[in-house]
Write a structure and sequence with these properties.
289 residues; Protocatechuate 4,5-dioxygenase, Chain B; globular; 20% strand
């Protein structure tokens, strides 16, 4: 059967993609950010998955205020980088895995979660920046991402957004779906977005180091309790865009210890401020056999 071997968590700050694309990653401002992912790139090469299930949020490119699915799974064979108003990022198209994606959709919907099935969409920085951070710069003319990716978009832009509790339970349903797939596949699940940041209003620029690091502590050690944190705490402590962190709970809910297995191994942890106007958080958890 297929199995989830690890979960990866990372911010998806758009300015990180711009720094990479414009050749600025070596500048003093960005060096410390990218240094935090040097281990991760090596780790991914040594622990290359067959498929990545990548949880992200769309930023009004594939979807708009006319149509906002709470949970949307991509079942296409390919996804192009989106033009977010200044041209598409110069990165390869993302290859999908329609068979596994369709199986997960079938299983999760039968497990009483309503998913929107998307057969065509462009993917923005929410998905491509994590791939760039973990895989390194890729030339779209000659390169390719290391494996197929299943995009899973979550609405954390327009209220009402799903609760942390529901995201955590959804992760458990995704794990069950993956494990019921009748093919020997090594699957990683990535949760992206966050950490604390606010882009508008009198609190624009808010960063809460203490709360962010406590979130990482609890994500590792007490995820079920963390899943009970209400939206108002995210907004109060982590800013209006800090609500993106509920997407990390989908990835954490898919880990084996939640289903009664041993605690995961912390392979890497990184936190840095600032990167643009937000904090950068990153974590790699490995399932134990």
């Amino acid at each position: 059967m297929a199995r989830i071997t690890a979960s990866v968590y990372t911010s998806h700050v758009p300015a990180i993609g711009a720094a990479l694309d414009l050749g600025k990653s070596g500048e003093p401002y960005w060096q410390k950010v990218f240094a935090g992912y040097e281990f991760s790139k090596q780790w991914l090469q040594q622990n290359r998955p067959d498929v990545i299930f990548l949880v992200f949020n769309d930023h009004a490119t594939a979807f708009s205020l006319d149509l906002i699915p709470t949970f949307a799974i991509g079942t296409a064979a390919q996804y192009r980088p989106a033009d977010e108003g200044y041209g598409a990022r110069p990165v390869p198209a993302v290859q999908g895995h329609p068979a596994l994606a369709s199986h997960i959709a079938q299983s999760v919907i039968q497990d009483d979660f309503d998913l929107t099935i998307v057969n065509r969409m462009d993917v923005d920085h929410g998905l491509t920046v994590p791939l760039s951070l973990m895989c390194g710069a890729q030339d779209p003319k000659v390169g390719a991402w290391p494996c197929p990716v299943i995009p899973f978009a979550v609405n954390v832009v327009q209220y009402p957004v799903p609760s942390g509790r529901r995201c955590f339970a959804l992760g458990q349903a995704i794990r069950r779906a993956v494990e019921s797939y009748d093919e020997d596949l090594n699957v990683q699940i990535w949760g992206t977005g966050g950490m604390s940041h606010q882009l508008q209003g009198p609190r624009a620029g808010l960063i809460n180091r203490e709360w962010d690091n406590r979130f990482l502590d609890r994500l590792i050690d007490e995820p079920a309790a963390l899943a009970q944190v209400p939206h108002i705490e995210y907004v109060r402590e982590a800013g209006s865009e800090g609500i993106e962190l509920v997407m990390w709970l989908i990835a954490r809910g898919a880990m084996g210890d939640v289903a009664g297995g041993p605690p995961p191994r912390v392979a890497h942890r990184f936190y840095h401020v600032p990167a643009s106007n937000t904090a950068v958080g990153h974590l790699i958890l490995e399932n134990r056999a």
